[in-house]
Design goal:
Elements: H1 6-15, H2 19-30, E1 36-37, H3 38-45, H4 49-61, E2 65-68, E3 71-74, H5 80-92, H6 94-120
Antiparallel strand pairs: 1-3, 2-3
Length: 130
Amino acid sequence: MSRIPDDVQEFLRARIKSYEELEALVLLSHAPERRWTAAALSSALDIRLEDAREALVALRQRGLVEARGDSYSYLASPLDETVERLAVAYADNRLGIMNQMSANAIERVRSATARALADAFVLRRGKKDG
């Protein structure tokens, strides 16, 4: 197993939130000229239609794919080299990528919990107890 490059780790942290998003991005990046519907993606990746649709919408919102009607395609960007390194790392070190994604998910939960806890103890100016 090879080490996951730093830019790929940061890309995963910032742009990829689910396994379905990862699989969809890798597939679409390998055939940028092809347009994919959620149904075609669902079939190709053997995932639920709803999960395919959610992955495509999330990737579009993050500027990684473009939508035309109900079809999507990979969107070329300055991140192309990082996406290609991600695809290579995923092919070479699938477990490492999945471990990184799990660590990222745990960190998102911890951060959200810390923010919620901090917000619960915020004192509002001008309000009195009781």
